[in-house]
Amino acid sequence: MSETASQLPPPATLAIAYVPQKFRAAFALLLQIDARLEDIVHNAREPMIAQIKIAWWREAFSNEPPLRPKGEPLLQALNDTNNVIPLAALEALVSAWESLLGIDVWNQAIVDQHIAFRAEAIFETYAAWLGSPHSMADLGRAWALDALGAAFPGRVSTEFTVPKPPVPKARALRPLSILAMSVRTDSGPRIVWHALTGL
């Protein structure tokens, strides 16, 4: 596993281990980019500065690989994935986190926008890689809402809700089910048992 992936929390690294080899580095990178953008929002003391940082990432993603800024490991890793990650997924991640900036109170509409973008970027992209006939958008939105609440407990109301579909049992979708369970109330051993058995 790359150094980039090793910086992710244990449930994410477990999820990555179940990704098919040809997509593993790209999936790990999506999660790491998501975490980097989350850090910008978490540490946003001055919304304008945070917006500039987010805009820098958007522009970097939109550039052709030779024109991207040098010296940023995540961009170098992105260049190495040979366009496996679609630009639309990267732009959705940027939009997800940008939608939270400069707003004192996150209402249901703002949160719904955030979780829809984040679900598209990670869950729907992974499903597309696998050619899954089933949409993972609902599972992705449920994951994104739970993850946002865990990361920003004082800013996400417990009254915000989205449907929580059952986690898929198919091994091909195990990375997504592991992520979804990791931000619910499931314990570590329960998640590992699911990873091993699908149950």
Overview features:
single chain, mainly alpha, 10 helices, 64% helix
Taken in chain order, the helices and strands follow as HHHHHHHHHH
Strand content: under 5%
Mean pLDDT over the full residue set:
92
Work out the helix count.
Answer: 10
Rg result: 16 Å
Compile the SSE list and pairings.
Elements: H1 3-6, H2 10-17, H3 21-42, H4 47-62, H5 73-80, H6 87-98, H7 108-130, H8 137-151, H9 174-182, H10 188-197
Your description of this structure?
With 199 residues, the protein is mainly alpha-helical. The chain has one domain. Helices cover 64% and strands 0% of the residues. The chain is built from ten helices and no strands. The protein has helices at 3-6, 10-17, 21-42, 47-62, 73-80, 87-98, 108-130, 137-151, 174-182, 188-197. The mean pLDDT is 92.
What is this entry, summarized?
The protein contains 10 helices and no strands. With 199 residues, the chain is mostly helical.
